Target: Signal recognition particle protein
Amino acid sequence: MFTSLSDSLDKTFRNLRGVGKISEKNIADALREIRIALLEADVEFGVAKDFISRVKEKAMGEDVLKSIKPGEQIVKIFHDELEALLGGDQAPLDLNPPARILICGLNGAGKTTTSAKLANRLKKEGRRPLLIACDLYRPAAIDQLAVLAKQIDVPCYTPDASESDVVKVAKDALAWAEKQQGTVLIFDTAGRQEIDEKLILELKRLHDFVKPKETLLVADSATGQQAVSVAEHFDGAVGITGIILTKLDGDARGGAALSMRAVTGKPIKYAGEGEKLDQLFEFHPSRMADRILGMGDIVGMVEQVADKVNEADAMRSMKRMQEGKFDFTDFLDQMKMIQNLGPLEGLLGLMPGFSKIKKQLPAGAFDNKKIKRTEAIVLSMTLEERTRPEIIKGSRRQRIADGSGTTLMEVNQLIKQFGEMRKMMKSPTKMGNMMKQLGGAP
Ligand code: GDP
Model:
């Protein structure tokens, strides 16, 4: 996401840093370019204009122009304003009892999926969420929620298919919830193709009855400005307490994320970045600003990885690397760990500077099929070959290629790459640099 905006910012700031002495004209030119980039990213016109004038006011100050590194200072000013634009601090949910969350939005925005994702998150945080299906219009919505609830093992209230009064459903659900001893109730409500009066009236009735602590609008970020106006409408009708932006994974522009807070005054609390039920993340303005500026989001990356990688396994593998004992069996374990992480491209997108190196990677570097082929090659090696790769010579290589259904060329390539990897692991400076880049020791 934000790819073209990030690229434009990178170019503009690189130019600015390259200038020995920065003049007011340099800044004005740079900000004009940035303003165009923001508009191209579908940021609301007024928001872009105000934003640029705030940055300009701070950047034109004497102390910036006369400082030793004015380019760096301007990037910092830009970063801080971007963070403020995105909402400043991360906005937590109000989960004081009775914690009730109403999930609303248009059809297809991702309400049902997000309700389940949120339940999944809250469950992992040690709460006891309950899901309640209140979408009586979309025929499959109730079943969809029930299926998702089952996948994450969260109790779900499903009304009778003949029921048409949403307040009656909510009333029955509250009685059911009482017995379930849940601590957070999540109500998935009905949507429409577009906002209509009937939908809003129903939502208001439900809202009045449930009296939720949180009314969260689920909005599809890929719809850009439309998502922002939908949020304004829902806020005017029922008063939303926050926004969950979905499909950030498919949103190359990012205009909705950037304008939402400024236009609606409501915080983005979570962001959906994929279809899987663990792909809902807290929205941290500061980290998002880092990402937009190509500085990556190491904390976010570690959080995502921590969830899926067994720390003991990772440490064991690290130790073997340091001791120079890393062999093909360890390699296979690592491949499995990597596969557990899900699509690598999204995860690596959180790495600082990744957008730049990505273009240089060979096509298909993240191709799951390629990973599977590599795995097949390793599995075709004998145990001895995996531990002592140096014995894998001519005829053995052919046997491995035949056994794994791959080619001799692929086997040769893998063994060569593995050799280079081992060499790098043995070099303390290179390993150190790699760790430093990852933000870790030493
Ligand atoms: P609803 O009509 O608002 O309840 O929408 P659904 O929950 O049925 O979601 C509509 C579609 O969007 C489904 O195919 C979901 O899998 C998909 N979806 C939801 N959230 C995300 C997301 O964050 N990323 C991606 N890529 N797809 C999503």
Q: What stands out?
A: Confidence is low (pLDDT under 50) at residues 434-442. The two ends are 32 Å apart (CA to CA).
